[in-house]
Amino acid sequence: MAEVEVEVAPLEDEAGGGATAKMSRSVSFNCHRRFPTVQSYVRELGGEKGRVIEKVLIANNGVAAVKAIRSVRRWAYECIGDENAVTFVVMATPEDLRANAEYIRMGDVIVDVPGGSNNHNYANVTLIVELARLHGVHAVWAGWGHASENPTLPDALDRSDPPIKFIGPSGPPMRALGDKIGSTIIAQTAGVPCIGWNGSHVLAEYDRSTGCLPEQAYSDATVGSATEASEAAEKVGFPVMIKASEGGGGKGIRMVDRPEDVQTAYRQVCGEVPGSPIFIMKLSSRSRHLEVQLLADEYGDAVALNGRDCSVQRRHQKIIEEGPPVATSPEVWAEMERAAVALAKAVGYTNAGTVEYLYSEPDQKFYFLELNPRLQVEHPVTEMITRVNLPAAQLQVAMGIPLRHIPEIRELYGKKRFEDGIDTSIDFDNAERIAPHGHCIAVRITAENAEAGFKPTSGGIQELNFRSTPSVWGYFSMDSSGSIHEFADSQFGHLFAQGPDREQARRAMALALKELSIRGDISTTVDYISKLIELEDFVENRIDTGWLDALIKEFAMDGSSG
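The chain above was modelled as a monomer; its predicted structure follows.
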């Protein structure tokens, strides 16, 4: 490795005196090393499972597609010197084309796909696999939502000839961990703390080759009728949550605090997610929703990339995210990270994932909630505090590069980006990460009417004016010439504010929201959240998962009485 001695400018001492002493420092040219091609990058850094990925199908739209393309192009420019080293094939529905969606302009190859609901396009596994084969891509990135948690997608891609890499976990662990009942059984078997639920007594090992648990174990942890629901709720203890294992995004979940309401709530959950197995868990009142960001490679290593506090929720849907979590002690947070890594290793998990916990502040205890086998919408919070480009890290893991060779992971553990020596290993179980880079707060920008119960809206946009600053950046799925169509996700933007501490990040976000200008046929939550983060409870960080719903209920009662 080439090194050079340089003289550092004179420093002033603490008393403000003159020059003290000259310093010398070794500066490595490898800090900014570039490779001539993706092939050479993989050849040098990849392990025995190394594979070149130069063409990727984005099986998603909106902000997910925008973020993935931007992140990978940034990595390609930094490491290869060519932001177009990876070619992107994007899917475009008639609705997204008419909306002038940003990701379509960013794609290298645009493929027309049927319109309508996502089962005709972005969630259609058969269509995605056919397009991947037709266009000769090396890999598929599904991001979040749509087909991102459907294990039949990685399974089908793996059966292709030649196989096409799924940028995410393989089918078996996705199948095991993407199921809320199965993942909880696996977690408690691995020794991860779990809150009381109807399956607390069930322990079982899952089959790594199929991703399945023994049928009897799964059956023992499932509530099969309204009568069983009443019995299980009484045993778990009120209040309880009745949940569909295949639910999500606020669907298939009910809170019940009275025995007489259990059977009705059970039937409602069954109706919202038809065919899904149902389970019942104890409601942890006044808890926080904390999550650990995971990244695991194909060689058995897994690391925790700090985490996020996503406690500000409306009907179990995240509104504001921030990191690093500051509600726990460092010791408890370290336990949460270790438990998450142990769970990932127990099932042979690879690529990015998130372990979600409920955290009870009064007794400083945490309980496993679920593992999301995909990248989260709020992942840029982690990027800002760790400086790890997560979509690019996903790509590198998919290319068979070990975690110990990924430059940003090496930097996170205090190592040089590139090492010429024979021993490049990192003992991730015992090595310490560098401290987080300040604090980050994220706000989702959605086309919803907060005054009408957060009802989704659609229509054209005449003005979208956002100016990034050194403290705040954001991205949107369209510009002033775009629109939100009826099949689009309500989230069309995401803002991220960073500061040395939580309060300075909060103030930066407050100013950014005040200056953000969006005009058009849609309603947005910008003004509502702008007021929300100025409330004393938020400023003082006195929040939990029930905080926002309680505020909304209080406001509704005040309005009706007024």
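The longest strand covers residues 302-314.
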